[in-house]
Amino acid sequence: MNRHLIILAASLLLHTSSTQAQETAEHGGEEHSEAEAVTETDEASDSDEEEEEGDGPFFGVRMPVRDATLPQGTLALQWDLGLERSEADTTSDYFNLGIGYGVIDRLEVGATLTPLALGLFDTDFDYLDPSLYARYLIVRGDRELSFTVSGSIPTGEQDSEVGLALIGAIEIDDIVLEYGLEMEMELGDEVEVGLEIPAEVYYSFSDQLYVMLATGFVTENLKEVSSEWALPLESIVGMSFGDERPVFDLSMGLTFPNFVNGDGVEAETWMLELAGRAYFWL
Description:
- By secondary structure, this protein is α+β, with helices and mostly antiparallel strands.
- 19% of the residues lie in helices and 53% in strands.
- The protein has one helix at 2-55, and strands at residues 74-85, 91-104, 107-112, 116-117, 126-127, 131-139, 143-152, 160-172, 175-187, 191-204, 209-219, 230-242, 246-261, 264-265, 270-281.
- The longest helix has 54 residues, at 2-55.
């Protein structure tokens, strides 16, 4: 009798221990699965944050650090009004009205619709050649790179023009350095190729106010580069209006296109321009 009781007690003890071990293993497995799920969620969240900060579009109020292309679904109405003093001692004036649109992320297209010579000074009123452009943002972030292709549509006696531009930018705190390579081809009886290597420095005093100083190397004809070259000088003061994203930009610039050339320093030719850009978030 005692022997049977001992066997029965041992069986119950083994069964209880086995059940507790199984429950502990199952509970531990659940905790491990929950821990893995939490870890995966945190990793996914961190990945999303990195994507938003490093790869997502940035188009805040501060103009110099914005992406080179409009965000998807954003429409911009842009205009510029200017005076130009030429080498022939004549003063001309112009007004351009155009649009830009963010088609998809990193891709912007646009056009200059009303390029007008106003004829208020030494030239006659005229409708000049409209133009189209497409810009793609290749690299986004503190080190930016974009590519632009543009072309004019001849409406008169002027030849059509095609432009290609590869522009890079480096952001260092409140300073943005822009550099690149721009090529313009005039498609006439003979194709003339012009080249520009711009170098621009932007400084932001605040989100709303910035200044820009630019120079570079320009030639309108590579075949005559030894005699037709210049180092321009350009300065711009700009303001941006808006809260978390821009509503309107306004800038004024003064350019001496032939500031340094083969004949020395020249300040007789200049361009004075007032430009604006309004944004509509569709």
